[in-house]
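for the recovery benchmark. tokens below, seq after
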């Protein structure tokens, strides 16, 4: 008996339902969040084009949650001209580049560590606790120190952010890949020993193919971690471009509408990067779609 696989449209339907529910709840939540600040603004005697707190909730200059029209105006203001270094599309490209380079470094490092973890139990017992401990250090604290350390060796600009992103992202890759390498069927491993296959042949023909689903699952976690690392690195170090730099600037200016627009761009970038990993997975492992 064959089991029909769900189509892609079947997965889009629930997403649209959630989006519609979120859109329906946005306006009342926006009013609830802004009515208090609006009331305090009116009580302070500020001149507003409204007379009640409820009416002013959608007209505050720096609202807690911006009204849809304010979001649209902020989107246009921060997105044009598109090619400007001060516009969001350019800065999204910078952060995306740092994230992808960080993910590449994390993938190479994580796969190398996974090979060592699988090859030697002693290496695993000696290093795994330290690898776990490395992920407990807040990136906000370690990013400036890494930037200073790398700066002493002439590593400045784009690369330090990518290295900080890789620092956060390598751990899920290492853990996922090592689990995948160990997931090969024991019967198949016995068969490879029966054929006197070398260790390299066992890895190439059995362990690596078996590890691919685990690797891509880890990469989907790692790419979002790398994005967060890139943005935090831009905030914590001297940056002249990127989403983190724009977040820091607009946070200091208390421009909440801009902060919401930048967060929206960051969310879209994260979804796009995960979609790229999904597309790569479908290309590398076409059998997984069966």
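predicted aa per position
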């Amino acid at each position: 008996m064959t089991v029909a696989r769900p189509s892609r449209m079947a997965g889009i339907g629930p997403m649209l339902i959630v989006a519609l529910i979120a859109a329906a709840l946005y306006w009342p939540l926006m009013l609830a969040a802004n009515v208090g600040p609006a009331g305090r603004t009116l009580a302070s005697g500020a001149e507003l084009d409204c007379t009640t707190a409820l009416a002013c909730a959608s007209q505050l200059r720096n609202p807690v949650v911006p009204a849809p029209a304010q979001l649209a105006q902020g989107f246009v203001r921060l997105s044009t001209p598109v090619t400007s270094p001060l516009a969001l599309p350019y800065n999204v490209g910078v952060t995306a580049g740092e994230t992808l380079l960080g993910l590449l470094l994390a993938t190479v490092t994580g796969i190398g560590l996974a090979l060592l973890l699988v090859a030697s139990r002693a290496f695993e017992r000696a290093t795994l606790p330290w690898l776990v401990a490395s992920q407990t250090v807040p990136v906000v604290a370690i990013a400036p120190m890494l930037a200073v350390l790398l700066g002493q060796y002439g590593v400045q600009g784009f690369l330090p952010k990518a290295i900080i992103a890789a620092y956060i992202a390598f751990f899920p890759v290492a853990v996922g890949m090592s689990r995948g390498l160990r997931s090969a069927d024991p019967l198949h491993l016995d068969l490879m020993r029966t054929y006197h296959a070398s260790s390299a042949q066992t890895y190439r023909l059995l362990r690596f193919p078996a590890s691919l689903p685990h690797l891509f699952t880890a990469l989907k976690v790692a790419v979002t971690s790398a994005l967060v690392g890139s943005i935090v690195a831009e905030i914590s170090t001297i940056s002249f471009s990127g989403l983190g730099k724009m977040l820091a600037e607009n946070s200091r200016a208390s421009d909440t509408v801009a902060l919401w627009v930048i967060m929206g761009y960051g969310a879209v970038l994260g979804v796009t990067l995960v979609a790229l990993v999904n597309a790569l997975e479908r290309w590398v492992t076409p059998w997984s779609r069966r």
